[in-house]
């Protein structure tokens, strides 16, 4: 009897140790491109140079999980962004652009805390992002600009998946003494992903870090996959309070906000359309179109933009691909001079048109 009890205790101990498994993964991307862009200044001059990633900004990171048993696990992720062309860190982002820890349950979803992707970018990237196999492309991502960037600091985020339904809610703490709402962000998103059809939408309100003024963002869209072809469409709208000036939790410095003329508008709307075609296991072809309407804080700040992109991406192996991208933009009124394509596009359009061509190579590990 005594031996039986001892054996049972040892077996339980071994089982407990086996269940408490942990894993840590080092991963990253090195992406370098050469980009040609027209009308980069008022003289209409063109530029050609090496960029900081045409498809994906270079990065390295570490992520891991520990099995706590009974369907629970602890998860974490740390990720740094850098420029492969110069070896420099991305000065517009913190050293760890992603840094969070959390708990995941097979039944009750996932709770994460720290600097991490926003609810709106999660919704768009899963349902109707341009170039969905990337998703987006680092050199040309207007929809990321429209949802207020891809990362937020001080963020508490809850994600739940139930069959074909997906839901996420998040809150970023502002941390301003005496004004708990200043610098905060509240967001919700829902999605329905039954298979070939993917439909989702989300809403966020961001409060100014110095006076609490709100900025509101809506987005909704979907995609449909037929054999090797995917069609996607999305709608985005931002409304900005007249005294909104800064958001310290977000990804954009005051200089970056100026580059995208974020403080010029009271309303900015965008429609996106695109189609992606897979040709065998190695080649992806894509066409994307964005149309933007801006209602300025003054009549002189009204504007419109039409942007087009063609992209071909060929995988030499499972981890290495080469790509060729071309984009063309038509800008009117106040949207001339706006870095609307993305902060890595290689220069804001100084005139009403701009042509860009990018060629690059990317390796992931």
Topology:
Blueprint: H1 2-19, E1 22-37, E2 47-51, E3 59-69, E4 72-81, E5 98-105, E6 109-117, H2 119-127, H3 142-146, E7 151-162, E8 165-172, E9 185-192, E10 197-207, E11 214-226, E12 229-240, H4 254-259, E13 265-279, E14 283-296, E15 303-315, E16 320-333, E17 353-364
Antiparallel strand pairs: 1-2, 1-3, 1-17, 3-4, 4-5, 5-6, 6-7, 7-8, 8-9, 9-10, 10-11, 11-12, 12-13, 13-14, 14-15, 15-16, 16-17
Describe this structure in words.
- With 365 residues, the chain is mainly beta.
- It has one domain: Beta Barrel (Porin), CATH 2.40.160.
- The chain is 10% helix and 52% strand.
- The protein has four helices and 17 strands.
- A 16-stranded antiparallel β-barrel has the order 1-3-4-5-6-7-8-9-10-11-12-13-14-15-16-17.
- A hairpin with a 3-residue loop joins strand 5 and strand 6.
- The chain is globular, with a radius of gyration of 22 Å.
């Amino acid at each position: 009897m005594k031996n039986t009890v001892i054996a049972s205790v040892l077996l339980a101990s071994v089982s407990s140790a086996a269940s408490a498994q942990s894993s840590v993964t080092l991963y990253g991307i090195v992406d370098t491109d050469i980009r040609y862009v027209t009308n980069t200044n008022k003289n209409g001059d063109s530029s050609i140079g090496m960029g900081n990633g045409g498809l994906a900004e270079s990065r390295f990171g570490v992520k891991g999980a520990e099995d706590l048993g009974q369907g629970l696990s602890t998860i974490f992720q740390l990720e740094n962004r850098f420029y492969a062309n110069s070896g420099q860190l991305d000065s517009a982002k913190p050293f760890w652009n992603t840094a969070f820890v959390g708990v995941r349950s097979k039944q009750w979803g996932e709770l994460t805390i720290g600097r991490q992707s926003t609810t709106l970018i999660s919704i768009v990237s899963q349902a109707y992002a341009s170039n969905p196999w990337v998703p987006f492309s680092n050199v040309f991502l207007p929809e990321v600009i429209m949802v207020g960037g891809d990362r937020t600091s001080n963020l508490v985020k809850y994600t739940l998946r139930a069959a074909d339904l997906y839901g996420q809610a998040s809150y970023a703490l502002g941390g301003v003494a005496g004004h708990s709402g200043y610098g905060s962000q509240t967001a919700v998103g829902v999605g329905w992903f039954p298979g070939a059809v993917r439909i989702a939408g989300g809403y966020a309100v961001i409060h100014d870090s110095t006076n609490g003024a709100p900025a509101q963002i809506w987005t909704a869209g979907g995609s449909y996959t037929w054999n090797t072809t995917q069609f996607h469409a999305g709608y985005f709208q931002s409304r900005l309070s007249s005294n909104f000036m800064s958001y310290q939790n977000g990804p954009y410095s005051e200089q970056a906000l100026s580059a995208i003329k974020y403080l010029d508008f009271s309303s900015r709307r965008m429609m996106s359309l695109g189609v992606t075609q897979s040709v065998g296991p190695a080649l992806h072809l894509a066409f994307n179109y964005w149309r933007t309407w801006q209602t300025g804080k003054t009549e002189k700040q009204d504007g419109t933009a039409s942007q087009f992109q063609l992209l071909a991406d060929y995988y030499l192996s499972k981890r290495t691909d080469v790509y060729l991208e071309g984009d063309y933009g038509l800008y009117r009124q106040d949207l001339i001079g706006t870095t609307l394509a993305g902060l890595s596009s290689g220069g804001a359009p100084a005139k009403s048109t701009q042509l860009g061509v990018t060629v690059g190579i990317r390796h992931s590990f």
